[in-house]
Amino acid sequence: MKPTCPAHDEATRRSAGAARPRRTLADLPGPRGLPVIGNLHELHADRWHLEFERWWRAFGDVFVVRMGRQPILVVAEGELVRDVLQRRPAVFRRTRAIEDVSREADMVGLFSADGEAWRKQRQLINPTLHARHVEGFFPSICEITGRLRDLWSRAADERAARDVLGDLMRYSVDVTSTIAFGRDLNTLGGGPDALQEHLQRVFLGLNRRILAPLPYWRYLGLPADRAYDRALLAVKRLIFELVAAARRELEGGADRPARPRTLLELMIVARDGENPRAHLSDAEVYANVLTMLLAGEDTTANTLAWILYYLASRPDVQARAREEADRVLGGGLIPTLEQSKRLEYTGAVTQETLRLRSAAPLLYLEANHDTVVGDVAVPAGAGVVVLTRATGRKPEYFGDPESFRPERWLGGAPPTLPHEPRMALAFGSGPRVCPGRSMALLECAVTVGMVLRSFTVQLADHTAPVRERMAFAMQPEGLRIRFTKRACA
Ligand code: HEM
Predict the structure, then answer these.
(1) Cα 24 from Cα 73, distance rounded (Å)
(2) For residues 470 and 392, what is the distance between their CA atoms, to the nearest angstrom?
(3) 435 in Cβ contact with 329 (< 8 Å)
(4) What is the pTM (predicted TM-score) of this model?
(5) Angle at 202 between CA 201 and CA 208, to 5 degrees
(6) 46 or 321: which carries more pLDDT confidence?
(7) Pairing, β 62-67 against β 70-75
(8) What is d(CA 475, CA 468) in angstroms, rounded to the nearest whole number?
(9) Going by CA atoms, what residue is nearest to atom 17 of ligand 1?
């Protein structure tokens, strides 16, 4: 057994709720801010996660910032972060803005629901993303990965550098739409698809509204919001039609029972073992199909883009991963399901990428009632931001934390380097941990295996900085990759 750190033990003991609070939010350190607006002006539109992390380095693991007049508790200490995430849905919830904006779009799905509504959905939907179902989607993932390979082969022939994030966004749209409702939008192969454009508009609109300081759209009809409403209507019509068609096929067809093939169909037949009468309504299926598209696309695409970034900037890592891919795949160019599970070093590269470049570097929650975090009293309704990426960059959990060292995940780190995998929180933690993680990791293994067998990758311009940008999820900005075909490809 590993020796435990006294600071962690103390944190666990304090947050178990037994301790009486010794501090209030007003006692905590934090950036000074301005009257009325607090620290709002310091949060740059697409890099605000970096500001939170800068404050963390300046003020430590527990501090306070002000959004307008509202004080927000910010936490980066691992045991406290895990404790807050664990005490959901009873004590903490996702920030209310997410549910409010989603409700206006009739889209209260697993990500945005809270309390009992969330619990019911989680029980019914979680099993639809279990490995045995995800593995059933494997042929679709491989087919679309082949399309990505063709695209990058052409780029290699033309010696053209690629904006890989754009390509990977289209890749994950195609994979997720095929898996979610059986429609391959083939955005990789063709021009813009109307449905994809609608989805993009809906997701951007939701993001804009969740982050808006005021619900201005309830009073103003800006062109972007009218376009959002139209796009939402089109998406809603289509998905409700697909739900109705799937119900007809699954529940009324002649040769019963048909085997569900998509997430939408799995959701329709989902039943709770303990409460067989519980099932998802059409509105809940609609909300969750959209949720899967929203939660699964950008996160996976951004993670894959960051993996390519590390492979391209670390030739030693690329060489070792390539040696493994050659050994495991033999003559194949795209891993089989069984091979993708044996790509251990590639898996470690993915874990290390997620630790350093988590697509969701922080989570924004709210206290449901008066409570205590560590030794701090938190009043009902107060915002709580947990810095999940910062937790994974603390030297007491991951030695030499700023270095990209995939071997640490394979037991290859020197024993003097701390290694606490439970403090790697890219998929969150507790009862609301990401249910799509097996699917995301499978997509990463297949795509990276394909790249390693077919190409060598290099940064198109070693001098151009690749920066972090916070859109719906955290993504690399300015990443261009040059592909060179390998002799075996
Ligand atoms: C690398 C890719 C991904 C990353 C980094 C990621 C990350 C996350 C994170 C941080 C959360 C919040 C967890 C928490 O609150 O504790 C989350 C929730 C969620 N994710 Fe993922 N995710 C990824 C891929 C996916 C995929 C592929 C799907 C589905 C197809 C998915 C579906 C969801 C859903 C439905 C939730 C809400 C769960 C709940 O609140 O109960 N995610 N994800």
Answers:
(1) 10
(2) 18
(3) no
(4) 0.92
(5) 90
(6) 321
(7) antiparallel
(8) 6
(9) 434
Give the residue extent of every domain in the chain: 6-485
* Tokens (6 digits) for 331: 């003559």
Residue 12 token pair: 């666990």
Count CB neighbours of 454 within 10 A: 22
> In this structure, what token pair is assigned to residue 363?
């989570």
CATH architecture designation of domain 6-485: Orthogonal Bundle (1.10)
Residue 194, SS3 per DSSP: helix
Task: Identify the residues whose C-beta falls under 6 Å from ligand 1.
Answer: 85, 110-111, 122, 291-292, 295-296, 299-300, 303, 359-360, 363, 426-430, 432-436, 439-440
Q: How remote is the CA of residue 294 from the centroid of ligand 1, in Å? A: 10
Rounded alpha-carbon distances, angstroms, from residue 408 to 44, 58, 355, 442:
34, 28, 12, 21
Cα of 246 vs centre of ligand 1, distance in Å, is 25
Say how many residues make up the chain: 489
Grouping H, G, I as helix, E, B as strand and the rest as coil, residue 243 is helix
Q: Give the type of residue at 78.
A: G
Q: In this predicted model, what pLDDT tens digit does every residue of 149-181 receive, in sequence order?
A: 999 999 999 999 999 999 999 999 899 989 988
Q: Is the pLDDT at 191 greater than 80, yes or no? A: no
Write down the H helix ranges in 182-314: 194-211, 223-252, 263-269, 282-313
Its sign, for the CA torsion 406, 412, 413, 419, is positive
Burial (CB count within 10 angstroms: exposed 0-12, middle 13-18, buried 19+), residue 322 = buried
